[in-house]
Amino acid sequence: MATGEVRYCSRFPYLCLKFTLIAYSTIFWLIGASVLAVGIYAEVERQKYKTLQGAFLAPAIILILMGVVMFVVSFIGVLASLRDNLCLLQVFMYTLGVCLILELTGGIVALIFRNQTMDFLNSNIRRGIRNYYDDLDFKNIMDFVQKQFKCCGGEEYMDWEKNEYHSCTAPGPLACGVPYTCCIANKTTVMNTLCGYQAMKYNRHEAQKIIYPRGCTNAVIMWFLDNYTIMAGVLLGILLPQFLGVLLSLLYISRVEDIISEWNSSADVLLERPEIEFASKGCCRCYPGIESDA
């Protein structure tokens, strides 16, 4: 009885990588679809009120862009891993790698040029403050940040001078005041929405008796520095899945290339020895090999 070894009958590494990559791509494909759906819904609602047209100040647009990128890239990953398509696998891997590098580069550049980054953030917040009552998205975000982080405006509370209703030259009770979300918590049960009345007429020392005068940009950054473990967790949550995707893709591409190489070698043997058949053993189908002959 002549016996020959059947190659790739034990394919656990290949199958493990394949199903792991399929699961990884499918999860992020579904997440991308969900983010895209939420973004589209939010944008439709935003357009009903004709709110501010600006990507930085419109979370709906940011969600749509993120959703489209995640959906398309993840779909490529699902299709590539299902079909063992080397070209699509490489596109998936390189796209994830480029996104990862861009995020890391952006973070490093923002840290190196932190003063310019702060100026950029503050200028965009002032743009939002100018349209505070017209852009419901920005208004809700600004109110939440001011209440949560106990701050007012972007760089400082005087940023509210940019708003036409809160400007000191404006008519009405809001003139020279700030929104109630800047105020120190009221002692009364009923919220006083005019608690920031005439606050911008006071200097910083006097204003801090009724409002939080520090800017929200500094307040948020200080909160992150004080809670560095949370910040590290957020960064890992963003970067680690992408790195894992690049690593899985690289390993799977190498495995598929090995299998193709072995397959081509087996095809050459088949041409020389037609008695070799495709074998099926147990739960796995093997690549061409030599069956035992009685």
TrEMBL record:
GO molecular function: enzyme binding
GO annotations of cellular component type: late endosome membrane; plasma membrane
Subcellular location: Cell membrane; Late endosome membrane; Membrane
Protein's UniProt keywords contain Disulfide bond: yes
Gene3D superfamilies: Tetraspanin
Keywords linked to the UniProt accession: Cell membrane, Disulfide bond, Endosome, Glycoprotein, Membrane, Transmembrane, Transmembrane helix
SUPFAM superfamilies listed in its UniProt record: Tetraspanin
Regions crossing the membrane: 21-42, 54-79, 91-113, 230-253
Keyword Secreted: no
Cystine pairs: C152-C168
Membrane topology field: Multi-pass membrane protein
InterPro entries xref list: Tetraspanin/Peripherin (IPR018499), Tetraspanin_animals (IPR000301), Tetraspanin_EC2_sf (IPR008952)
GO biological process, one term: protein maturation
Role of this protein: Part of TspanC8 subgroup, composed of 6 members that interact with the transmembrane metalloprotease ADAM10. This interaction is required for ADAM10 exit from the endoplasmic reticulum and for enzymatic maturation and trafficking to the cell surface as well as substrate specificity. Different TspanC8/ADAM10 complexes have distinct substrates. Promotes ADAM10-mediated cleavage of CDH2. Negatively regulates ligand-induced Notch activity probably by regulating ADAM10 activity.
Family recorded in the similarity comment: Belongs to the tetraspanin (TM4SF) family.
Subunit structure: Interacts with ADAM10; the interaction influences ADAM10 substrate specificity, endocytosis and turnover.
Name of the protein described by the UniProt record: Tetraspanin
Annotated organism of origin: Pyxicephalus adspersus
